[in-house]
Amino acid sequence: MSLYPVFLKIKERECLVIGGGSVAERKVKTLVDYGGSVTLVSPELTSGLEKLVELGQVVHIKRDYRNGDLDGFFLAVAATSDPEVNRKIYEEAEESGILINSVDDPDNCNFFVPSSVRRGDFQVSISTSGKAPYFAKKLRKFLENMFYDDLDKDLDKLSRIRLKIIEESGDDGLLKEKMFEQVLKPEIEDIIRRIEKK
């Protein structure tokens, strides 16, 4: 199955996680890290999730999932240990047009969360379309060693140079491309050399 690759803006978007175990904790932390407004439905929580609730980073509804819980959410993650409950969550999400990821259950997802390497705003994501997540995880670890820690600072520098070129070239597309080639290309080649040295 071919998947359409996409990066979602979830800052301040309503995200629902159903489940309170270690897998749910990992998913919640990632959503919070990317700026999502997270609500958690589960009768029990890990100590890590309890701390996020205490800090006010997550809203907790202390009970099991009920039909209708997905109303008003942008995306949902089914992270319960019960495949039947996860299937019901998926069906509700599909009926409501909500993005749904059921952890380790590709048949009950309409999106997958790829394994990613992140250095600030720089990200590389790996997907096997749900066929071999363990391989994606191992490949991510391999790639993590390739990308140096300050890569995000170099990305910021490229962004500043790019904006300056756009400002200076105005509506002249040919001049802009020429300046990209003369000014940006050497900077990019330097970054690639640093990556290759790793």
What does this structure look like?
The structure is a single chain. The chain has helices at 22-33, 47-54, 83-96, 133-144, 151-169, 173-197; strands at residues 14-18, 37-41, 58-61, 75-78, 99-102, 115-119, 122-126. The chain folds into three domains: 1-112, Rossmann fold (3-Layer(aba) Sandwich), CATH 3.40.50; 114-146, Double Stranded RNA Binding Domain; 151-197. The chain is α/β, with parallel strands linked by helices and 198 residues long. It starts with 13 loop residues before the first strand and ends with a helix. It has six helices and seven strands. The strands form two sheets. A five-stranded parallel beta sheet has the order 3-2-1-4-5, with helices on both faces. A two-stranded antiparallel sheet has the order 6-7. It is elongated. Helix 2 links the parallel strand 2 and strand 3 (58-61).
Quick tags:
Double Stranded RNA Binding Domain; 6 helices; single chain; 16% strand; two-stranded antiparallel ribbon; elongated; 198 residues; 7 strands; alpha/beta; Rossmann fold
Task: Using the coordinates shown, work out and report the CATH topology of the largest domain.
Answer: Rossmann fold
Element string (H = helix, E = strand): EHEHEEHEEEHHH
What is the overall number of helices?
6
Estimate nothing, just give the exact number of structural domains. 3
Q: Biggest sheet: strands side by side, in what order?
A: 3-2-1-4-5
Considering DSSP H and I runs of 4 or more, what fraction of the residues is helical?
A: 40-55%
Low-confidence stretches: none
* Strand composition percent: 15-25%
Structural class: alpha/beta
Give the biggest sheet. 5 strands, parallel
Mean pLDDT: 92
CATH secondary-structure class of the largest domain: Alpha Beta
Number of strands: 7
Which descriptor suits the 3D outline? elongated
